[in-house]
Amino acid sequence: AxxxxxxxxxxxxxxxxLKAIEGDVAVFSHAHALTVDAWKxxxxxxxxxxxxxIAKNLLLRDKNxxxxxxxxLESTExxxxxxxxxxxxxxxxxxxxxxxxxxxxLQVPExxxxxxxxxxxDAKDIVLILDDKLxxxxxxxxxxxxxxxxxxxxxxxxxxxxxxxxxxxxxxxLSIRDVKVGKDNPPDLKAxxxxxxxxxxxxxxxxxxxxxxxPKGGKSKGKGKGGDKKGQKGSKKAGGMAGDDVHGLIKExxxxxxxxxxxxxxxxxxxxxxxxxxxxxxxxAFKNVAYTRGYKAAKTEIISMIKA
Length: 308
Prior knowledge:
Strand 9 (about 235) and strand 10 form a beta hairpin. The protein has helices spanning about 10-20, 35-50, 80-85, 100-105, 155-165, 190-195, 205-210, 230, 245-265, 270-305, and strands at about 25-30, 50-60, 65-75, 95, 125-130, 140, 150-155, 170, 235, 240. Strands 1, 2, 3, 4, 5, 6, 7 and 8 form an eight-stranded mixed beta sheet that branches. The chain has a two-stranded antiparallel ribbon with strand order 9-10. The chain is of the alpha/beta class. It folds into two domains: about 10-195, Alpha-Beta Complex (YbaK protein); about 205-305, no CATH class. Helix 9 runs antiparallel to helix 10. InterPro entries: ProX/PRXD1, YbaK/aa-tRNA-synt-asso_dom_sf, YbaK/aa-tRNA-synth-assoc-dom. It holds the Pfam family tRNA_edit. Belongs to the PRORSD1 family. This is YbaK/aminoacyl-tRNA synthetase-associated domain-containing protein. GO terms for molecular function: aminoacyl-tRNA deacylase activity.
């Protein structure tokens, strides 16, 4: 009975299933909304009339290609560093899943991520994490597999639907901060990560993820291949990216920028300041590496000229 409603369905069939669960499910048509900001603008009036809140959806993956779908109120800040620690991932932080996962696993276009897509057969191994604050809402807006429509459903109705497709999910208090894990205080969500199964993505998606740093901090040590290893020591950033790799740096900043925007409330001005400070720090580090490389190259050239 748990997976009786699972399968590849369209938005109309989904809405019919939701109305069978909760008779007063409302459906609203609006302009295509690719971002939470655009979505809020599109359904602001309806949300007020319905007494409904907007839920944001994040599709994340860990170092082992296990996928995590986080559903949270738009006002909830999802701290990826804290969540990673609670899942027992250590310093290998969660990052945004490749776009490929939307099309191949959840079978929805970009901008249409929704918990209803977990009905897809290939989505059965995704870990669903639900914001504990959702339970206190009267109604919540979600996309019904398309981003030019929204449906309002109660948290109880959502739970009933998710249970019917065998994907009940796990309610988590996402407001917890300053997590300290250790022998006497093990990660409280580690069982979720341990019980998940890994997905396989294309080589291109894996390479893109390898170049991108974790969304909020975290560093790794490693040696580069080829060239003067001594000269390269200490010039690697998270993910093994060279300190003077222009394209890699741009990719890293882009990944971090969108991860922070997706994981935080849209009206939180402090996040803009944090992004700017982080950008300044990275560019200064980039400048220092470039200066060091240039100095060493010039020094080597001068020594060669003297010896000649």
